C-alpha cells in the first residue's frame, strides 16, 4: 500500500497503510461541511491516510484531482460527483491504473458500472417522493390550486435531478398542485435568497416552496421575511437535509417539513474502502437510512442533533 516502502502490484508503495484520494464537491452547504467532517474523522479513526481535495463545485477540478490521485498511485479513490455526466474518460484512467473507485453521496449516469466498485449514499428520488407525499397529505381535502415554487440544487447534479423527479412523480397525481416556477439556487443560502426574491417579485400567489436543501430554504426564508410575509405560515416550506440550522427553523415554525439526507457517510466509506482494497466483494449499492421531520419531531430531535 501507499507512502514509503517498496512498490506493490498496482504500483503503490507498501507500508500497510491505505491511502485514499477523496474529491469533495465543495463547501456549499451545512450538509457538505458535516459530510467533510465525517469523512476526515472516519479516515483518522480507521488509520487511512486521506488526500482531500475541494472541487469548489466544478467538474473540471474534480477531474484534475482524480488524475492527480492516479498519478500519486493512491490505493483507492472516493468522490462525490458534482454532476452526473462526463466521468467515463477519467474513471477509465483510474481503472486502467488498477485503482478502485467508490462513489459517495452522488451517483453518475454512466452505463459502464465497471468504472466504480460501489455507490454509497442516499436515495434522492425517494427523498423527493417523501417531500411530495407530505405535501399531498397536508393539502388533502382542499380543492383550490396550490402554487409551488421550487429551488433546485446544482443543475445536472444527481440530487437536483432526482429530488425534482421524485417530487414531480408524487404531486402529478393531483392536478391542483402546480409548479409555477423552478430554478437552481445552487444549494447555497445566498443563491436561495436571491432566487426566492425574484420568485416573490414575479408571483404574488406562492403557496408552497420546495427547496432541494435546507440552506436554500434558509436563504429563501430571509427573502420571504424581507417581503413582509411569514415563512411557514403564509408560504409552506419543505426542504431536504435536516442540518442543525434547518432543524432550528423547523422547530421555530419557519419550515414545515424536512426530509432527512444523512451526511455522516465517513465510517461506512472507510469500511468499504478497506474491503475494496483487500479485493473483497462489496454490494453495488449501499443506501443510507433516513427519516423525515415535522415541527414537533424537530423540537424533540434538536438537542441530540450532531450536525
Ligand atoms: O449531495 C447532497 C446534497 O449536496 C445535499 O443535500 C446538499 O445540501 C448538498 O450541497
Describe this structure in words.
- The protein has 307 residues and is an alpha/beta fold.
- The protein contains 10 helices and 12 strands.
- The strands form 2 sheets. Strands 2-1-3-4-5-11 form a 6-stranded parallel beta sheet, with helices on both faces.
- Strand 1, helix 1 (30-46) and strand 2 (49-54) form a beta-alpha-beta unit.
- Helix 1 (30-46) crosses helix 9 (266-277), helix 2 runs parallel beside helix 3 (88-96) and helix 4 packs parallel to helix 5.
- The longest helix is centred in the first third of the chain and has 17 residues, at 30-46.
- Residues 2-13 have low confidence and may be disordered.
- Bound molecules: alpha-L-arabinofuranose.
- Alpha-L-arabinofuranose binds next to helix 1 and strand 9.
Amino acid at each position: 500500500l501507499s507512502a514509503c516502502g517498496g512498490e506493490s502490484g498496482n504500483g503503490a508503495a507498501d507500508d500497510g497503510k491505505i491511502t485514499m484520494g477523496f474529491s469533495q464537491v465543495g463547501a456549499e452547504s451545512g450538509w457538505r461541511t458535516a459530510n467533510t467532517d465525517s469523512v476526515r474523522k472516519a479516515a483518522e479513526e480507521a488509520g487511512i491516510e486521506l488526500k482531500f481535495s475541494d472541487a469548489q463545485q466544478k467538474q473540471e477540478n474534480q477531474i484534475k484531482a482524480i488524475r492527480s490521485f492516479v498519478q500519486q498511485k493512491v490505493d483507492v479513490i472516493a468522490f462525490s460527483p458534482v454532476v452526473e455526466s462526463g466521468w467515463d474518460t477519467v474513471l477509465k484512467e483510474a481503472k486502467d491504473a488498477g485503482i478502485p473507485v467508490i462513489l459517495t453521496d452522488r451517483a453518475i449516469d454512466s452505463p459502464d458500472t465497471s468504472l466504480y466498485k460501489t455507490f454509497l449514499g442516499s436515495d434522492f428520488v425517494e427523498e423527493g417522493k417523501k417531500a411530495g407525499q407530505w405535501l399531498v397529505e397536508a393539502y388533502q381535502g382542499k380543492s383550490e390550486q396550490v402554487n409551488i415554487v421550487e429551488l433546485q440544487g446544482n443543475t445536472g447534479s444527481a440530487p437536483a435531478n432526482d429530488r425534482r423527479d421524485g417530487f414531480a412523480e408524487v404531486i402529478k397525481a393531483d392536478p391542483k398542485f402546480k409548479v409555477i416556477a423552478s430554478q437552481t439556487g445552487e444549494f447555497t443560502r445566498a443563491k436561495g435568497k436571491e432566487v426566492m426574491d425574484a420568485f416573490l417579485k414575479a408571483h404574488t400567489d406562492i403557496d408552497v416552496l420546495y427547496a432541494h436543501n435546507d440552506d436554500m430554504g434558509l436563504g429563501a426564508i430571509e427573502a420571504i421575511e424581507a417581503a413582509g410575509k411569514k415563512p411557514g405560515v403564509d408560504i409552506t416550506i419543505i426542504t431536504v437535509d435536516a442540518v442543525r440550522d434547518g432543524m432550528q427553523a423547523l422547530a421555530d415554525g419557519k419550515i414545515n417539513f424536512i426530509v432527512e439526507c444523512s451526511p455522516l457517510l465517513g465510517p461506512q466509506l472507510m469500511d468499504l474502502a478497506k474491503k475494496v482494497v483487500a479485493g473483497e466483494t462489496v454490494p453495488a449499492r449501499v443506501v443510507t437510512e433516513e427519516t423525515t421531520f415535522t415541527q414537533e419531531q424537530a423540537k424533540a430531535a434538536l438537542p441530540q442533533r450532531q450536525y
